[in-house]
Amino acid sequence: MSGTDGKIIAMTNMDDLLRRVRAKANATAERLPPPATAEEVAQAESILGFRLPPVFVRLYREVANGGFGPDYQLFPLLGEGRTAVNVYREERATAKSDDEATHWPADVLPVLDWGCGMFAAVDCRSPEGAVLLFEPNGIDDEWHHAWYVDSESLAGWLETWLSATGWYEEDADEDGEMRPWEAARQRLSAGS
């Protein structure tokens, strides 16, 4: 294995990241669900109508089908109760049925409910799986103001969780402002 091939290094880094995520998930979750199967991922993509980023697929296939992660933990992809697929469909249905402006863009999968209407969501149009924060509190009708970039990549977001340095941590540095998601206005106006 040579250090000059970026793909080999990236794969090794992702393998290491998933190993560390699996270890923390096992240490912090009471009982992890089994990993998602290839069939479940394919079924989710079929229902959603878009592909999931490779890093997201690996996370759910190699660690667990949700049930771990920051605070309220990641939704399962499919299954009983609240799942990433069900919540996405609910948010999109609400967005399409409201007379008001659309609040939830296409291809943005909610993965964690922070409470108070806030969600962590993965932009599935981003190959790195950018993680967005939907924070609707105080927003009347300009929904693009409710969207922020929590991390440019799912891998970076997971690293933040592993290092306990996320904005949601009790000892978090409150001086760090989250950057607005620049694509929000355009993606919301597109409606699809």
Write the layout of secondary structure elements.
Layout: H1 6-28, H2 38-48, H3 54-62, H4 84-97, E1 108-115, E2 118-123, E3 131-134, E4 147-151, H5 154-162, E5 179-180, H6 184-190
Helix pairs in contact: 1-5
Walk me through what this model shows.
The protein is of the alpha+beta class. The chain has a single domain, classed as SMI1/KNR4-like (3-Layer(aba) Sandwich). Helices cover 38% and strands 13% of the residues. It has six helices and five strands. A five-stranded antiparallel beta sheet has the order 1-2-3-4-5. Helix 1 packs across helix 5 (154-162). The longest helix has 23 residues, at 6-28. The N and C termini lie far apart (43 Å).
CATH class: Alpha Beta
- Percent strand equals 5-15%
In N-to-C order, the SSE pattern is HHHHEEEEHEH
Q: Kindly state the number of beta strands.
A: 5
CATH architecture: 3-Layer(aba) Sandwich
CATH topology: SMI1/KNR4-like
Mean pLDDT: 89
Domain Knr4/Smi1-like: 35-164
Organism: Nonomuraea polychroma
Protein name: SMI1/KNR4 family protein SUKH-1
Region (Disordered): 170-192
